[in-house]
User: Which sequence fits this backbone?
């Protein structure tokens, strides 16, 4: 028997000989630790609270959802399973792991207590930790699907005012909202900032008899709303854009029934990506996804042509 083995046996015999009963000794230790953890959690909740992101925005299709780090392994494991098998990774496997842990005392009835004396189960445990650990690292490294866009703070403020003032009660943006007023993304593209601001200050001053109420907004709210409106509005593209598309893109992409299959179908792309993301996807796809198979067009097309194409694509599927 190796020295550590003997030492371990001796200590075990000594502790067992001391004869402290489970209740109250062990129970007291458990309760103490549980209380300390509870106190620490309460303190953290009281002093710091949960770090929340900004309000969920259904019109923002460029959000990058990410779980907290301790769920990254599940997030990563999900990617190995195609859609219909998702529940295997999300429910069956974790469920089996927890069930295994619950049943462990019944499965493993060996009298040995030291980890080194139980190579099979210790090995399995370490293997499990390695799998979870590497999935976590892979999850941390996996590229974001959507570009991280620097969001204009004025636009973000405008979006908040839009939510706070409940404008969606009367207006639709990207198909979501009420029907009393016009669908804003379809109409505001043509309005100037000055017109919008005047309209927000007093709708009747620019649209006689307007059914939109005067909302008594502050100047900075008006400026923010106008910036938000400009950010959602469809901008006109030229007749050149569809032609550019058939010439440079249709070999790989479909719009409607026309086009190739080696890239994704773009018939509805405007409902999923905004113009800034589209411009990046066209000019330099590897800036969004290092493994992109699509060629970059920043040297083949001019900035004006890329802008034109992006406006054209962002009008699709709205
Ligand atoms: C009670 C319903 C109602 C509410 C609430 C409302 N609107 Fe309107 N809005 C209308 C109607 C009706 C029109 C069309 C008449 C007009 O242009 O004034 C309109 C027009 C507009 C236009 C002009 C569209 C264009 O280019 O012709 C904009 C922009 C607008 N609303 C934005 C907003 C914003 C932002 C809010 C929230 C701060 C809001 N509306 C709240 C009913 C409403
Ligand atoms: C050689 C084939 C090929 C050509 C040519 C091509 N693409 Fe792509 N494109 C792809 C592939 C493949 C993807 C999928 C992502 C990747 O692997 O790059 C893609 C992705 C995209 C996306 C992103 C779609 C999404 O869901 O985010 C857009 C937008 C796009 N292409 C637009 C264009 C436009 C506009 C042109 C013409 C200027 C063009 N593509 C030319 C193959 C091509």
Assistant:
């Amino acid at each position: 028997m190796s020295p550590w083995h003997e030492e371990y046996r001796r200590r075990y015999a000594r502790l067992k000989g001391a004869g402290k009963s489970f209740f109250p000794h062990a129970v007291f230790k458990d309760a103490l630790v549980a209380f300390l953890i509870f106190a620490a959690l309460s303190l953290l909740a009281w002093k710091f609270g949960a770090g929340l992101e900004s309000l969920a925005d259904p019109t923002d299709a460029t959000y990058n959802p990410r779980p907290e780090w301790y769920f990254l392994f599940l997030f990563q494991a999900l990617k190995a399973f195609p859609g219909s098998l998702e529940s295997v990774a999300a429910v069956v496997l974790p469920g089996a792991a927890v069930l295994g842990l619950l049943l462990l005392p019944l499965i493993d009835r060996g009298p040995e207590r030291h980890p080194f004396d139980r190579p099979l189960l210790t090995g399995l445990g370490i293997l499990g930790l390695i799998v979870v650990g590497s999935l976590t690292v892979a999850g941390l490294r996996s590229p974001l699907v959507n570009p991280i866009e620097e969001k204009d703070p004025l636009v973000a403020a405008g979006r908040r005012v839009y939510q706070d003032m409940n404008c969606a009660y009367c207006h639709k943006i990207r198909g979501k909202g009420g029907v009393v007023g016009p669908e804003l993304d379809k109409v505001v593209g043509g309005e100037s900032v000055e017109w919008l601001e005047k309209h927000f200050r007093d709708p009747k001053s620019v649209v006689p008899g307007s059914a939109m109420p005067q909302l008594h907004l502050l100047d900075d709210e008006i400026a923010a709303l106008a910036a938000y409106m400009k950010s959602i509005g469809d901008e006109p593209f030229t007749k050149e854009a569809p032609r550019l598309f058939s010439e440079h893109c249709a070999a790989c992409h479909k719009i409607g029934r026309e086009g190739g299959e080696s890239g994704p179908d773009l018939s509805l792309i405007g409902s999923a990506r905004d113009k800034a993301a589209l411009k990046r996807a066209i000019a330099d796809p590897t800036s969004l996804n290092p493994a992109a198979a699509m060629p970059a067009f920043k040297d083949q097309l001019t900035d004006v042509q890329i802008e034109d194409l992006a406006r054209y694509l962002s009008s699709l599927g709205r």
